[in-house]
Amino acid sequence: MCFLVLVFRGAAREFVVTSQELITRGLVLDIIVEMLLIWLILNRRVLQEKLQYIVQLLGVLQWCLASSYHMILQSRYVLGLFSFLMCDPLLVSRRNGLLEI
After folding, report:
1. CA distances from 48 to 31, 42, 56, 58, 81 (A)
2. For 40-93, how does the pLDDT look when each residue is reduced to its tens digit (9 = 90+)?
3. How far is CA 18 from CA 14, 21, 22, 53, in A?
4. Domain of life of the organism in this record (predicted)?
5. Closest CA to 78 of 64, 97, 92
6. What is d(CA 39, CA 26) in angstroms, rounded to the nearest whole number?
7. Ramachandran angles phi, psi of 49, nearest 5°
8. Do residues 18 and 4 touch, judged by C-beta distance below 8 A?
9. What would the DSSP string read from start to end of 24-88?
C-alpha cells in the first residue's frame, strides 16, 4: 500500500495518515453533507417561514424609509413656503410659479 504521509509533530506525538484513511475521511464528509442536505429539505417549511418573516420585515423597513422621505419632502415644502413668505431671496427662488430651495 502506498503511503501518503502527512506528519504532524507536536507534544512528542507523530501522526501518519495513509491514503486509505483519507479516502475514508472523504466518505465520512460525503455522508455528513448528504445528511445536511436531507435536513435542509425536511426543514424547508421552517426556512420558508423565516424567509417570509424577513420579507415582511423588509416591507416594514421600506415603509419607514418612504414615510421619512415623505416627511423630509413636506418639511422642505414648509421651509420653502415660510422663507417665501419672509421674502428671503437667498433661500428661495421663484421659477415658473414653483418654489425651490
Report:
1. 25, 11, 12, 15, 49
2. 777 777 777 777 887 887 777 777 777 776 666 666 666 666 555 555 454 445
3. 13, 5, 7, 49
4. Eukaryota
5. 92
6. 20
7. -65, -40
8. yes
9. HHHHHHHHHHHHHHHHHHHTHHHHHHHHHHHHHHHHHHHHHHHHHHHHHHHHHHHHHHHHHHTT-
Give the contacts of 19 (CB within 8 A, at least 6 positions apart): 1, 2, 3, 4
- Report pTM: 0.33
Kindly list the distances between the CA atom of residue 74 and the CA atoms of 58, 60, 69, 77, in Å, as whole numbers in the listed order: 24, 21, 9, 5
From CA 6, how far away is CA 17, in angstroms rounded?
6
96: which 3 cell numbers? 415658473
